[in-house]
Specification:
The protein has 264 residues and is an alpha/beta fold. The protein has one domain: Glycosidases (TIM Barrel, Alpha-Beta Barrel). It is 45% helix and 15% strand. It contains 11 helices and 7 strands. A 7-stranded parallel beta sheet has the order 1-2-3-4-5-6-7.
């Protein structure tokens, strides 16, 4: 009886192992369609969760920086950069032959207060803020030129009604701050894919306002390669047809539509 049970368990183990080995990798299933990405934290990249790190390397062929490339992380003080965590992220991506996306160059959040102030603590001028933007984008993109294949150049610049968010960037520079950011990014690395990234673009008002603005920049000859939707979705919202509308409307203006984030 014991031998029979042992034999049965052995056969089960062999079958399970064989089934596991036959399951294709997620990145291979969709290799001819799109990248399977992840946004790992520095905690994971540093090896503090080995299982997560193994899954990351095994199942994915693209990574986006979760926080380590945001302004407050790499450029916390005027004239002082800290690329330690960002370099670690890049090294992991290169080691595992991944498509690396930099996130993000211009955003109203996780940007130090000093960026929007002059040396005396007063609100920065338009010219002063543009200069800071250019210096930051140039420094960060140049460091990873040829390694980072795509950049989220501007992040979350629109309100839900499709108007531009009243952020410090918009208040100080004006509505053309997005245009200026993309022009600078293209100048620094003409080979990089440049992305505008936001959330709730599946919803009509925000999507139409965003696409109308981006289309106006394209008409001026500004290089923008894709619009990214942050998929903070659930089982109820957005509806399938709203997701389809996002892809179709972006395609109409000649850009790629990307799902840059996806809640699971």
């Amino acid at each position: 009886m014991k031998k029979s049970v042992l034999l049965f368990l052995t056969i089960m183990f062999i079958n399970i192992q064989a089934q596991t080995e036959s399951i294709p990798l997620l990145k291979d299933v969709f290799k001819d369609k799109f990248y399977i990405g992840n946004a790992p934290s520095d905690y994971i990249i540093k090896g503090n969760d080995q299982k997560a790190l193994e899954i990351l390397a095994e199942q994915h062929n693209s990574i986006t920086a979760e926080n380590v490339m945001k302004w407050e992380s790499v450029h916390p003080q005027p004239g002082k950069y800290n690329f330690e965590a960002a370099d670690r992220f890049i090294e992991f991506g290169l080691k595992n032959d991944m498509y690396i996306i930099g996130h993000t160059l211009v955003w109203h959040s996780q940007t130090p207060r000093w960026v929007f102030q002059d040396a005396n603590g007063n609100p920065e001028t338009r010219e002063g803020l543009i200069a800071k933007m250019e210096e930051h984008i140039t420094t960060v993109m140049s460091r990873y030129k040829g390694k980072v294949k795509a950049w989220d150049v501007v992040n979350e610049a629109f309100n839900e009604d499709g108007t531009l968010r009243s952020s410090p960037w918009q208040k100080i520079i004006g509505d053309d701050f997005i245009k200026i950011a993309f022009q600078i990014a293209n100048k620094v690395d003409p080979d990089a894919k440049l992305i505008y990234n936001d959330y709730n673009l599946c919803f009509k008002a925000k999507r139409e306002g965003c696409i109308k603005y981006i289309k106006s920049l394209l008409d001026e000859g500004v290089k923008i390669d894709a619009i990214g939707e942050q998929g903070h979705w659930d089982m109820v919202s957005p509806k399938n047809e709203e997701i389809v509308c996002f892809f179709e409307d972006v395609k109409k203006i000649g850009l790629k539509a990307m799902i840059t984030e996806l809640d699971i």
